[in-house]
């Protein structure tokens, strides 16, 4: 065999492996099933969009600090706070026009790829009872009178 053909034959498998590792167009999905690592702790995220100068945001921040709400969020959701003044590009991407805005996003894996979609959006301040309903908290059992 020609020396040039030998170098081409040895380089092709090496380039193929490098492209697979680097996430190129070639993939070994047919031969090796991909191992997917969860990006987030929970399947749902709450994104709270706020600003320091917003009075309704201050009320909402106080309601989000309620112990029942904090417990529910820690158990079931990833929680992110986005400041409009610090992240204007993200707010533009999410089409935020009024504050405060609370968004619930669902994270999923389909065909080996991660995806997100918006499940719920509420614009304005929510009371604690409205937040419980928004987060679908189970109602506490009513004690029976004896």
Report on this model:
With 146 residues, the chain is an alpha+beta fold. It folds into two domains: 35 residues, no CATH class; 91 residues, Glutaredoxin (3-Layer(aba) Sandwich). It has a four-stranded mixed beta sheet. It is globular. The N and C termini lie far apart (95 Å). The C terminus is likely disordered.
List its salient traits.
24% strand; disordered C terminus; Glutaredoxin; alpha+beta; 146 residues; single chain; 36% helix; Thioredoxin domain-containing protein
Structural class from helices and strands? Answer: alpha+beta
The biggest sheet, with number of strands, parallel, antiparallel or mixed sense and barrel status, is: 4 strands, mixed
Number of helices: 5
The coarse silhouette is: globular
Please state the second-level CATH architecture of the largest domain. Answer: 3-Layer(aba) Sandwich
**What is the spatial order of strands in the main beta sheet?**
2-1-3-4
Percent of residues in helices: 25-40%
The CATH topology of the largest domain corresponds to Glutaredoxin
